[in-house]
Amino acid sequence: MFSKMIKNLSTKLKDKTEGRLPMSVEKKEEPVKNVLDVFCPYCASENYVRRGTRQKKNERVQLYLCHDCQRTFTPGAVKGKHYPKAIILDAMSLYYLGYSLERSCEMVNKMNLDKSQNSKVKK
């Protein structure tokens, strides 16, 4: 009886799927714009070249020269940011883990002091 039910179900499924093309998944080649794509913040042009680097308080950033408006820019998403993203994320993570603002600042400063001393020793 059980085998008869299975046979009956399989014939019903075959009848429903007859004439259909087999299901296949094809990868569509669509251009996806990268979040980190660089463009001129003044004229939104993508016509630029590298123009050296600039030393900020705690990091060195790449400078770009726009050919359309002849202005120099950095590809940072946040204007006026003085600290690298890693330091900002460390500070926010510590704060959200429950440390006080003062304690988070102390811990981040200590972590970065240790890193800078290690990098000086390696050089």
From TrEMBL:
Domain of life: Bacteria
Identification of the protein by name: InsA N-terminal domain-containing protein
The organism of origin for this protein: Candidatus Kuenenbacteria bacterium CG22_combo_CG10-13_8_21_14_all_39_9
